[in-house]
Specification:
The complex is a heterodimer of chains A (178) and B (85). Chain A is mainly α. Chain A contains eight helices and no strands. Chain B has a single domain (8-84), classed as Arc Repressor Mutant, subunit A (Orthogonal Bundle), CATH 1.10.10. Chain B has four helices and no strands. Chain B is globular. Classes of the chains: A mainly alpha (178), B mainly alpha (85).
């Protein structure tokens, strides 16, 4: 939770305050928890609201999509032919396995899930929140945009970045295991 | 078909926009035409779609351990706090 709060650009002490505040709100409104989402999701939504409000009042507000203007590439540049290549500029230099041949039992195996979890944990908080709400909890994008105060475009950017980072981690894992 | 407006490097950035219906009709068509004839991009597309689909099978116990720990800590601190005073 602290990490999520810090993800909104809050300092360590303020982030701790915000986590406490979020817990207070959660405990006070437990009877309004409808079970539409998991408890964890609900908690994160409340935490996000508290953190955002605090970030705004501190005038240190950092938008969810901040963190450098330059977008990180989905795939390392080294895997494509350079832009000045006469024929294959921007095309893959390597093959990409579709993972279709990986048996389902391996995809759902504990070891794979462990890697999945580890890659999720390594994501910046703002990617995790969007990924968990959309892909893990299955929320519709409109709800996620409304709750996190995101434009549809920014929500897609965050979701995409989360997915591509998880993809890279899993690709590494599948390749090292052969 | 011969005129491909997207490079592979562009296509990999557009997969989520495509899946989320965030491309305009021309881009959508160009994306589909590229993926249809480009095996590595097709592989990449399948990978991301698989991640989006299988993430839903993660359960509560798949919450990253440190995240769960910090949650529990925060809860312990909170419950300990009011009682002391």
């Amino acid at each position: 939770m602290l990490r999520v709060a810090r993800g909104y650009g809050l300092g360590a002490a303020t982030a701790e305050d915000v986590v406490q505040e979020a817990w207070l709100r959660v405990l006070r409104s437990l009877d309004r928890f409808e079970g539409r989402s998991s408890f964890r999701t609900w908690l994160f939504v409340i935490l996000g609201n508290c953190a955002r409000r605090r970030a705004t009042t501190e005038r240190r507000s950092v938008s969810l999509d901040s963190g450098g203007g330059t977008a990180e590439p989905a795939v390392a540049e080294s895997r494509f032919f350079p832009a000045d290549h006469p024929r294959w500029a921007g095309m893959w230099t390597t093959l990409v396995d579709s993972w279709d041949s990986i048996p389902e039992e391996r995809l759902l195996a504990e070891e794979t899930r462990k890697r999945f979890r580890a890659s999720l944990d390594a994501l910046p908080a703002r990617y995790t929140v969007v990924f968990v709400l959309r892909d893990v909890e299955g929320w519709p994008s409109e709800d996620v945009c409304a709750l996190l105060d995101l434009t549809p475009e920014n929500q897609r950017v965050l979701l995409h970045r989360a997915r591509v980072r998880i993809r890279s981690a899993l690709e590494e894992y599948f390749e090292e295991r052969g | 078909m011969s005129d491909q407006p997207f490079s592979c490097q562009q296509v990999v950035e557009l997969v989520t926009d495509y899946l989320e219906d965030g491309l305009d009709p021309d881009q959508r068509l160009a994306f589909e035409q590229h993926v249809a004839v480009c095996p590595p991009c097709r592989g990449y597309f399948s990978q991301l779609r698989l991640i989006a689909r299988t993430a839903g099978t993660l359960s509560e116990e798949d919450v990253p351990e440190p995240l769960r720990e910090s949650l529990l800590d925060a809860f312990r601190d909170w419950t300990a706090g009011p009682r002391k005073s």
